[in-house]
Structures are given as C-alpha cells and as structure tokens.
Amino acid sequence: MTQPLQQTSATFVGMPKFPEAARKELANAQQRKNLRHATHTIRTKRGNVVREVDEWEALRVAGAEAKDEALTHLGDYLEQLEASLTANGAVVHWARDAEEANRIVLDIVRSKEVDEVVKVKSMVTQEIELNEALEAAGINAWETDLAELIVQLGHDRPSHILVPAIHRNRSEIREIFLREMGQVGRPAPADLTDDPPRLAEAARLHLREKFLRAKVGISGANFAVADTGTLVVVESEGNGRMCLTLPETLISVVGIEKVLPTWEDLGTMLQLLPRSSTGERMNPYTTMWTGVHDGDGPQEVHVVLLDNGRSHVLADRLGRQALRCIRCSACLNVCPVYERTGGHAYGSVYPGPIGAVLNPQLRGTSSAIDKSLPYASSLCGACFDACPVRINIPELLVELRGKVVEEAGRTPESAAMKAAAWVLSDPRRLGAAQRAATTAGRLTGGKPLRSVPGLGAWSNARDVPSPPKESFRQWWARERGKGEGR
Amino acid sequence: MSAKGEILARVRGAVADITTPAGQRPAAAARDSGGQSDEGTLELFSERVADYRATVVRAAAGDVPATIADALAQLGCQSVVVPSGLDAAWTASLGDAVTVLPEAEATSHAQLDAVDAVVTAARVGIAVTGTIVLDHGPDQGRRELTLVPDTHVCVIGADQVVPDVPDAVARLRPAAGAAQPLTWISGPSATSDIELNRVEGVHGPRNLVVIITA
Ligand code: SF4
C-alpha cells in the first residue's frame, strides 16, 4: 500500500537546495557566532547532566523500545488513546493532512466567535502552517514562547528547535520589541534596555493581558499516553501553563507518532527529554492533563490526531525509527554542519540532522532541497550518540542518499550507497564493520577519519561515522553480559 | 472513508511486516525503589531544589505557620490566595499585614493577577531532579492559583519526597475516571532564549519557596 506524502508547504516551495541556502546563511557572521556559542553551551550542559545518570544507555534503550512498541502497533495504541481521551471528556478529531487539521481547528475557533488565540510553542502547528491559516481567516494567533514571540514580531522564521531565535542578539531583540509590540498590544516600555531580564519583563507584560483575556488556547503535545489519555507539555517559561490553563477551550494538535503505550513510559521519557534538550535535570514546568478536569482549566478540550506524511515514513522498515524523535534538539547541538549553517538552510521547521532525515522522508525526494538534504552531513555519527531514543541518523542518511542517487539513474555512486546500506542494514554486518572501525578509532585517537567537508564538497562527504572507542553494540554486549552474570 | 478509518488503515498497512502483538515488549528498565524518604533523599532534594535558585527551608511541623509568614514578609507579599483545603493553621499567623483571599472568592483571572502570592501543599517531591509535583487536590487548589501570582510558597512533607522520576510516576498514575491534572515544577519560571542568558521569571511565579516539613 502506498502511503501519501506530506504536501510541501507554500513557505518552503522554491527553497534553494541546501548548499546554496547554506552558503547564504554562512555569510551571516552574527548568526554563526550566536550558533556556535549556543550549541557549545547546551552541549556542555547536556554532557554534565547525562554523565550524572549511571544507567543512561539503558534509559536510551528503554526510550527507543517504548517508542518502537507504540509505532509498530500504532493502530492499536491510537484507538486506545482515543478511547481514554473520550472517556475523560475530550473530543478527538482525526486529520489526514495539514489542510484537514487546519480546517478542524479553524471550525472550532470560529464556533467560539473569537478573533484571537494564544499558542504554546509547537513544531507540529508550524509544520501545518496553522498560524497562516488562522490569519487568513482573520484570527490572530499569538505565539507566547519568548523566542517564538521574537520570531513572530520580527516577521522571521525559527532557526533552532529549542531556541528558535538564537540567530538574534539582544540589541536586535530590543529593537524588534520597541518597534513591533505596540502594533499588536501593550507596547514595550520606552526606556527598554537590551539587558535580558528587562527584555523578558517586557515580554511578560506584553503577553499577560493576552493570557488573561484569551478564550481559546492552542498547543501541541510532547507525549500522549494511550492507556490513560494524558497529554503532556514540557516547557520552561510558564507560557505553556498559561495557554493550557486559562482559556475556556483548548485545542491540541498531536502528531500520531507522539503516542506512548503506558503511563509508566513517562518515567523513562521525563528523564531522557530534559537532560537531552536543555541540559537540565528537569525543565521548570511540565503540565499533564487528562481530558477535562471539572472546575479546573479548559472545560472544552479538543485533540486533533494528525498523520500528514507520518504513515508514509512508518511504511519504511528502516526509516520508521525517525518517528521515535522526541524533538529534543540534541542532534542539532552536536552537529558540525548545523553549527556552521544554522537552521534556515534546511528549508523546514525540522532543521539539523533529524531534519535532513525527516524532511525528505515526509516530503519525498523530488524537490531540489529534499534531494540535497541527505548530503547535509559529514556522517560523523555524533547525532546518533546524542540521540536519547537512539535514532541511527547516519544510517538513514546513507540510505536516503542511495534513494536520491537511484532516482537519478544507476551510477557507481549508487552502487557505493547500496553497499553502505547493505552493511548498515544487518546487525551482524554492522557489528563487524563497527568493531573494525572501533579499532581504527583507537588508532586515530577518536578523531573523525576525515575532517568536516568544506561547503563546496557536500556531495563528496562520504566519511564513515567517527568510530567511538566503544561501540554501542560492544557496550551492550558488555552490560548485558554483566547482567546475565548476576 | 472517514479520516480515522483511513489513517488507521494506513498505519496498519505500514507495519504489515510486524507480527508480534502489542504489549509484548520486555519490561521497561524503570524501577521503583519503594519511595522511602531517608535523610539522604531529603538532603538531595533540598540541594537540587536550591540549584534552581528556589528558596528551600526545613521546618518542624509546628514551625510551618511562622515559616510561611516569614517567607511572605521577606518577599514583601501583602496578599495571598489560599486553596480551599489548605491546613487552616498554616495561615493562622499571617497577621493583619497580609490580606487572605480564599480560593472560592478568586473567581476571575484579573483578581488572581492582583494577588501577590499563593500558599499550597504538594503531592510528590523528586529528590534527583529537585521537582515538586502538584495534583491540584483541595490543599493545592485549581491550576491557575499557582500560576498567576508572582510568588509560590509550597509546603511538602518529608514522606512525600521520593528518590527519582520513575518513583514519582508510579505514585501519580491517574485514577480511571477520576484523573487529576498534574503540574511538575522545578524551580521558578525561566528562559534562556536571549543569547542563552538564564533569566528567572517569565510568565510563571518568579519566586518559589519550598518548605520541607516532617
Ligand atoms: S533525532 Fe534524536 S537527538 Fe535529534 S531531536 Fe530527535 S530525539 Fe533529539
């Protein structure tokens, strides 16, 4: 059965292919400086809190297993989720694609006769371009996450999953606030400085009036627990709590891959996500709601379950692991390519290594940008090591390269890609190749076998992943062996 | 076909290669230590809460009312909203300087916005992550009570503190048909969106005081 692809959104149609877009972004020195600072800072913090957890590798395995269980039995768990949600008073909607999801949300918002909604940062609503759909219908969608606010007021696009305005510095933010806040609500204080606490205070005051009067809130969800019907939003600032608590009506758009089989899986995920994402032991705020709670929070709760290309990804036996992604952004922060080009060059709301995989998977490899994305990597393997749910991004990139090349006709290149895919697709072959590579890693002192390629050379980047001193497989064999000895 | 029917058919067709039934995966690596709060757990909890620049105070049961009054005075709070099921003794020593707004009388968002502080109990504390979890029972109040005012004073019993996240998750499983909303709080509201500078306090309470009592 062929699965439908995601429709490529209007914003990104005509996006130049990755090397061209990247060259343009590289010219932006401020962005490069900000990005370097950001990725290195978060990377260090992440490393520190991950090292605190003795059983980190076992947690990653448990996280991957929880997602795999949900994904490989997705039909069952989605039906269970719907039943649990409905039993707790939520209304469940199903949307095949972006257009259908937007129409559902718009109909609900219209029925409330409001001209504005408040929004929690959510990648899925960016993916379906919900704000644009609402605006076209004359409804203002206020982004309330500080970085999203900066992006929205600056008429800009996000460049990082976690810190979407990382390409802006404090004086740019001050200018944007002074120029734009008054156009859409409470103006920024006239004596606003570029001191971060002052800027945050300006955002607090600007948004508070919107929170207090909002009738409709729109969110995504980090997790949707099938056996209890609980939705989970993980955040830092409290804008999420505001949007999830104060409005009378709450609409959550949830990708079908967000489902977790059981409540207990949250015990794993809530250890993996904050440490991988912001590099904290726990993020400041997490909200969990199970349908409607009598007399507390929104009394009308809608959940829109969205496919939009996900079932297409699921049909690919190797590629489906990309749907485990919990959008932590750890892979972005360790990626030498992302660090230099930034998020905009990927032409999608999903940037970085996971974007290089997910976009061509979701949208197909027919456009120039999606053809070139699988090459936006040096295959150094850092993303795989960082990924809390063990998505083998280099392996998927190699496979996608093979697809791109194959579509262009059979060449020596496609043969090479096929060979690489052959090694990577079989655990035994991969194990043998990794043991060989690990030996090589000891010899080269853990340095990548080749340096990160220059920008002219994306398509020449065929480096094998930087061999770790101990491969995961070796670690697993060792740990398992230990466990069995007990 | 309905959207639901079509999506379910697609996802089932997509995993036609999978033959194992749902629910057969190996048991999760998560563990439940039984949740006994020994002194080490409490020490770790105080340390980790303080790491987020929240204020942590240990108080004997009898000293809770005075500790609450002190905390509010230090932060200059002149009004406080109180959940309907909060131990009445806890707010008994607030005196005339502080106006007390009972939860039932706080009917609008604007009213809450004008209140300086909220005092609540908690449901669970997590030592490793320095987290308090509210289940918004009668001694914690509706969610907006702990969201809109700028100061949150939270009293947690030593026996409510568990070692790690899986222990807390085990205690918090929503009861079928009677699920409570949950708010996990780890320090005051914060952002790092401006050049990665951590700023405490954006939309949630900027001051968090955690009182640990026996
Ligand atoms: S692919 Fe892995 S590391 Fe990257 S965002 Fe997703 S979960 Fe995080």
In DSSP terms, counting alpha (H) and pi (I) runs of 4 or more, how many helices of chain A?
22
Major sheet characteristics of chain A: 6 strands, parallel
Strand content range of chain B: 15-25%
Q: H/E element string of chain B? A: HHEHEEHEEEEEHEEEE
CATH-scheme architecture of the domain at 55-310 in chain A: 3-Layer(aba) Sandwich
Outline type of chain A = globular
> What ligand species are in this complex?
iron/sulfur cluster
Strand order of the largest sheet of chain B: 1-12-7-4-2-3
Which parts of chain A are unreliable, with pLDDT below 50 for 5 consecutive residues or more? 427-473, 479-486
The CATH topology of chain B corresponds to: Rossmann fold
* CATH level-1 class of the domain at 55-310 in chain A: Alpha Beta
* Helicity level of chain A: 40-55%
Radius of gyration of chain A: 22 Å
Protein name (chain B): Lactate utilization protein C
Pfam families (chain B): LUD_dom (PF02589)
Domain LUD (chain B): 102-212
InterPro entries (chain B): FTHF_cligase-like_sf (IPR024185), LUD_dom (IPR003741), NagB/RpiA_transferase-like (IPR037171)
